[in-house]
Write a structure and sequence with these properties.
heterodimer; A: 369 residues; 7-stranded mixed beta sheet; 5-stranded mixed beta sheet; 10 helices; B: 5-stranded parallel beta sheet
Amino acid sequence: MSNVDRTSELARTGGRNTSSREQRILGIIETARAKRSRFRDERITMAHGAGGKATQTLIEGLLAPAFGMEELADAAIVDGGLALTTDSFVVRPLRFPGGSIGELAVNGTVNDLAMAGARPLALALSLILEEGLAAEELKAEVDAIARAADEARVRIVAGDTKVVERGHADGMYVCTTGLGLIDARAQLSPVGLRPGDRILLSGRVGDHGTAIMLARGEFELGATIESDTRSLWPAVDALLDAAGPQLRCLRDPTRGGVASVLNELARASGVAMIVRERDVPVHPAVAGAAELLGIDPMYVANEGKLVAFLAPEAAGAALAALCAVPGGEDAAEIGEVRTEPPGMVLVETAFGGRRVMDQLVGDPLPRIC
Amino acid sequence: MRFVDEFRDAELGRALAGEILAAVEPGRHYKLMEVCGGHTHSIYKYGIDDLLPANVELVHGPGCPVCVIPMGRVDDGIAIAHEPGVIFTCFGDMLRIPGSDGSLQDAKARGADVRMVYSPLDALRIAKANEDREVVFFAIGFETTAPSTALTLKRAKAEGVRNFFVMSNHVTIVPPLRALLDSPDLRLDGFIGPGHVSTVVGARPFEFIPARYGKPLVVAGFEPLDVLQAVRMILAQLAEGRCEVENQYTRVVPYEGNRRALEVLAEVFALRPHFEWRGMGFISQSGLKLSGAYADFDAELRYAVPGVRVADPKACQCGEVLKGVIKPWECKVFGTACTPERPIGTCMVSSEGACAAYYNFGRFAREREVV
């Protein structure tokens, strides 16, 4: 066996034999991790809003049990054919390259419906306005909301406004609630993933989170990156056309990024996932900013991207369909579902090694959505 | 990315891995310590372990700035953060380091004005924008980051800023290495030397390691090819019976260091007689405080801090991890009581900490083939 062969053999088997004691300890850790999280924190910290482990603990440990919710998804299915969801938006600054809070508020909720395979029908809109907000800024956002709703072909049908004292709302907060109609072609389930399923990503990762960070002007980096905020219904429509029931599951990787949705689904379906780092599309400026800041773009938020899981035989057609949708030009197959080790996401690094890609811990980023 | 991707070339990596495999003596076990947390992070992040033969073992060293901060210093920082009118600034990782009663992040949730910054200059900028408040920067790091703190202080002094203070937790790299080499429970074959520290101090300060202790040291960069090449250079020294300091990171590290940075350090800082290290106890001449000329900026003089030495939690074995005596997973609380979301020890917090790196990136049974 040549050295190169031995090396690839080493790479295949993981380089070293993990001692049995190490394995036993890893087993204990996995058992501990598989337990339902309990909410034990004394106070809310910013980490509870970052979309990582603390957020999961808050939802799974406090909210879901209190309301008897068993399956957690972006939108709930009510009455068989309807999907319902709600979302609030607290981004600072209100306007940023590529979008603003108004567009986010429409697209974010429309996308949560789309991820459930639902065609968006109507939105209810709540505005929480800060005393002193310039009318011009408000008008601009109302226009942005109307325009985004128009583009997403969804109507704003109800709403509410509140005003709070100066210093309490960063200009404005926006909440939207969306109602959608489940598409007859959709048979999506977060627990339906099977080994061999392919993982598709609809475009470059990390644009939105990076755009907001740079727009806050804290890093003095020269690059301009635009938020990717857009309605994902056209992409979902195309995927349903191309793959129908072979489209197993959809997620939009917002807070916590692609890494967080993959982990969530690996846990929910009890499967492993392997992601090929070299196949993940990343804008060079996003990769550069992430490198400088020590952040992995896989954990950075997107507002106009989706992750789709497909039966292997449908993956090719689905990818072609995605690439043909505006905004999907850079879509790629980034990995696949495996059996071992269950509940975990592994990365094949571009360098040729392997590692875990875990859930986000803590809050590396400011308010982004 | 130019100047980065070249050092992450998978094909070159495989070729180097082949050379390493050819250089090891079968049956001999090699234990190499990477001194710097940045190396630990790279090794796990790129899966470099996967490319090394089973008899080349990498042991993680003490060079993680967040990991070496003892609990008492965190408590002192939190006490300052709770002082009325104070804006307390620190790097992101510091927010989550547990003190004896919660972390700075918890202090923030209780009402302290704690802000994350990316550089000491950001803290100075906050001070200038808030003249009615006092702004404290919790400075950490080895010789790598100390010059940026020093330059910030020089600027604050030159501009006459009077509401900016620094709590210095800066440390130096040579004393803990000496302490490590003097400890009897460690058998090492060589060192991957700290790249970024060496950009400041140069490679010369490490000459005592081959000279006095008979171990080769190769100063290395942080890209995966850098680390592999450093391993190969150490193995070559061992095979050829050489024992010296070599510099793999020549594109950044001058052998003599950066004289201007060293001058600024000497002006702004003074050596403390001793400084406590997490899990390693007091090490003499290993910490930097502000020099007399900068006493007006010294947060430890400005505020009454408890200054109490707090023993590490009994179960925590960060000290042994930092010394490379045990592997992260060999710690009694690793991954069960101590996790990145609820850390007991510092090594589980920083992305450069051996425990956090292993937990986040390395925690899967490599023997089990991924099917």
